């Protein structure tokens, strides 16, 4: 049982200090959170527990420390890329944008000796995986991808609604999109990751409301 001061890793918000962990729909018998104190060990699959607010949830099994850190690192990289993409698309909406992998990763190509030409790097492949996920989740649409850039990328109505939102959890009257645009200009990666988590959580709530779920 988690102690009063224990934190939980909320999968939906990807935060150790999720303020709504007791009400987050992912903390249910089908999903769950994991106490930070157990992050270095394996949790028992399907074990019932309660958080500091007394809300019931089921713990998920963990992978080992190295793999867990890598997974979190990928999430952070995803959040950073998504923050930059959202900022550009929001500031240029409704004009479609050309997104070059070279603008979002340190090294977008590697030389392939067999082909005798540059090919997309692992970093570029990760960038395109982020773009495909955002498209599949309904935040953006895109027309073409050639391994070096994605063309005709624009926010969907869902993406625009999320970025125009001004959540009460954020101080001030600026929208998420405006904050991301300002953050991208100043290079505030930690703030950008937080804003992306807020945007995706809002997107989940929108979908839940559309299908009649309470989130």
Could you please describe the fold and organization of this structure?
- With 215 residues, this protein is of the alpha+beta class.
- The protein is built from five helices and ten strands; from the N terminus they run ββββαβββαβββααα.
- The strands form four sheets. Strands 5, 8, 9 and 10 form a four-stranded antiparallel beta sheet that branches. It has a two-stranded antiparallel sheet with strand order 1-2. It has a two-stranded antiparallel ribbon with strand order 3-4.
- Strand 3 and strand 4 form a beta hairpin.
- The radius of gyration is 19 Å and the shape is globular.
- The two termini are 24 Å apart.
Sum up the structure in keywords.
39% helix; globular; disordered N terminus; 215 residues; four-stranded antiparallel sheet; alpha+beta; two-stranded antiparallel sheet; 5 helices
Topology:
Elements: E1 8-10, E2 33-35, E3 48-50, E4 56-58, H1 65-92, E5 97-100, E6 109-112, E7 117-120, H2 122-136, E8 140-141, E9 144-145, E10 149-155, H3 157-164, H4 176-186, H5 189-210
Antiparallel strand pairs: 1-2, 3-4, 5-10, 6-7, 8-10, 9-10
Level of helix content? 25-40%
Mean pLDDT: 74
Structure annotation, total helices: 5
Point out poorly predicted stretches: 1-52, 56-71
Shape: globular
């Amino acid at each position: 049982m988690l102690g009063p001061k224990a934190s939980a890793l909320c999968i939906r918000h990807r935060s150790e200090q999720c303020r709504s962990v007791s009400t987050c729909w992912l903390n249910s018998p089908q999903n769950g959170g994991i106490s930070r104190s157990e992050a270095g060990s394996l949790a028992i699959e399907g074990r019932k527990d309660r958080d500091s607010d007394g809300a019931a949830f089921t713990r998920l099994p963990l992978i080992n420390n190295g793999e867990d850190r890598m997974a979190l690192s990928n999430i952070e990289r995803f959040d950073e890329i998504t923050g930059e993409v959202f900022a550009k698309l929001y500031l240029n909406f409704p004009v479609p944008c050309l997104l070059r992998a070279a603008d979002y990763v340190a090294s977008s190509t590697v030389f392939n000796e067999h082909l005798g030409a540059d090919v997309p790097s692992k970093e570029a492949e990760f960038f395109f995986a982020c773009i495909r996920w955002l498209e599949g989740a309904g935040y953006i649409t895109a027309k073409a991808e050639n391994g070096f850039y994605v063309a005709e990328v624009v926010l969907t109505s869902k993406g625009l609604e999320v970025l125009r939102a001004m959540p009460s959890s954020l101080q001030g009257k600026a929208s998420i999109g405006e904050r991301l645009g300002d953050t991208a200009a100043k290079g505030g990666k930690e703030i950008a990751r937080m804003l992306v988590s807020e945007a995706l959580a809002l997107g989940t709530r929108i979908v839940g409301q559309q299908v009649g779920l309470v989130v």
